[in-house]
């Protein structure tokens, strides 16, 4: 493992607070959804870190991936175990194959027309 400069971890409470304001999250409703008191949910906004299971419960309740938000703050050079999304590559390959067929058909048509 290479020694790198220390990255400053994000303040989870601030991240949650910004999200709540932007999405107008009802904290009383959120507290009910995650089976906590409203005061507990408000306390989360002041905490620099939270247990993963708490952040998971909030993510599920508000249908937002806070883990992806955190991951996006890490350098792109860091590895993950996320499987590569190949749908775009498959679509490109399909279009290239279709393009090759059309180029062949165009050449054939040009040959038939004598040009």
Topology record:
Blueprint: H1 12-23, H2 27-33, H3 38-44, H4 52-62, H5 66-71, H6 87-113
Task: Please give a structural write-up.
The protein is mainly alpha-helical and 115 residues long. It has 2 domains: 9-74, 434 Repressor (Amino-terminal Domain) (Orthogonal Bundle), CATH 1.10.260; 86-115. Helices cover 61% and strands 0% of the residues. The protein is built from 6 helices and no strands. α2 (27-33) crosses α3. It is elongated. The termini are far apart.
- DSSP helix count? 6
CATH fold-level assignment of the largest domain: 434 Repressor (Amino-terminal Domain)
What share of residues are in beta strands?
under 5%
* Low-confidence spans: none
Mean pLDDT: 92
CATH architecture of the largest domain: Orthogonal Bundle
In short:
The protein is an all-alpha fold. The chain has helices spanning 12-23, 27-33, 38-44, 52-62, 66-71, 87-113.
Q: What brief labels describe this structure?
A:
elongated, 6 helices, about 0% strand, mainly alpha, 434 Repressor (Amino-terminal Domain), single chain, about 120 residues
């Amino acid at each position: 493992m290479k020694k790198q400069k220390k990255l400053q971890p994000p303040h989870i409470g601030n991240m949650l607070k910004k999200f709540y304001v932007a999405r107008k999250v009802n904290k009383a409703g959120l507290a009910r959804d995650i089976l906590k008191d409203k005061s507990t949910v408000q306390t989360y906004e002041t905490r620099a870190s939270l247990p993963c299971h708490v952040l998971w419960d909030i993510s599920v309740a508000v249908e937002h991936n806070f883990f992806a938000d955190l991951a996006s703050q890490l350098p792109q050079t860091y590895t993950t175990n996320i499987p590569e999304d190949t749908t775009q590559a498959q679509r490109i390959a399909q279009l290239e194959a279709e393009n090759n067929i059309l180029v062949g058909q165009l050449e054939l048509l040009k040959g038939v027309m004598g040009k």
